[in-house]
Design goal:
This protein is mainly alpha-helical. Helices cover 40% and strands 7% of the residues. The protein has helices at residues 23-37, 61-72, 100-103, 105-108, 112-130, 139-143; strands at residues 48-49, 57-58, 81-83, 90-92. The mean pLDDT is 91.
Length: 148
Amino acid sequence: MGVTEPQATFSPCFGGPFLVWHPGKYAELLAAKMKQHRANVWLVNTGWSGGPAGVGKRMKLSFTRAIIDAIHAGQLANAPTVRDAVFGFDVVTACPGVPQEILMPRSTWENGAVYDAAARKLAKLFRDNFQAYKGGVSPEVWAAGPLG
């Protein structure tokens, strides 16, 4: 109650207080399992779209379901992608049942410059937070963080 603007928080491995090892160790274990099982990994936005708190709206459940269905059906494995300039990951540009603009977060915001500023702010918060863990990860993991 009373929250007018959500604040970004970061929790290593979604359970920081309960971790026995450095988060980098869990990242190594996850990477090994992914490689062993040749797993594809997808980051799916189930949160906000179209603007900051008070402007944007929650992602429609029907879009989330369509994306998950397409992942399970293997339809996104070879889908066209573009590289996100701030976060550095590849973003699928076409998915059955999902409007193309939903897949490109910047295009859902009324003002692209405001989106760019918000993305850069989030990337900086991530990088600043990750400084605490830099000593326990490989240079490759460190370099995989947000770019801008």
